[in-house]
Amino acid sequence: MSTLLENNFRDAVNVAAATRQVAYAAATATYAGVFANLATYIAALVTADNAYYDAVQTAATTAGISPGVVSLPGGFMPGKTATIVT
Fold first, then answer.
1. Residues 6+ apart with CB under 8 A from 70
2. What residue numbers bound the domain in which 43 lies?
3. 15: helix, strand or coil
4. Rounded to an integer, what distance in angstroms lies between the CA atom of residue 83 and that of residue 23?
5. pLDDT digit string (tens) for 11-68?
6. How many domains does the chain have?
7. Structural domain includes residue 42
């Protein structure tokens, strides 16, 4: 059974993840496979990832959970660094 703070943390992470998914969808629609839009697409993904990571860390701190124990998955851009494999 989790505490109220843990439940609030879980809810905040879910909201942050949903927000990031919406941002990813908007970035993908903007990119639309057009090479000229690639830089904007990558910038949008990095911004979405940074906002997600920051929201999770803030939620952890608010819930009294050490940010060091919150494991953030390395998704498309782990470590807040954009990488493109060509």
1. 56, 57, 60
2. 4-66+75-80
3. helix
4. 18
5. 998 999 999 999 999 999 999 889 999 999 999 999 998 899 889 889 888 888 876 7
6. 1
7. yes
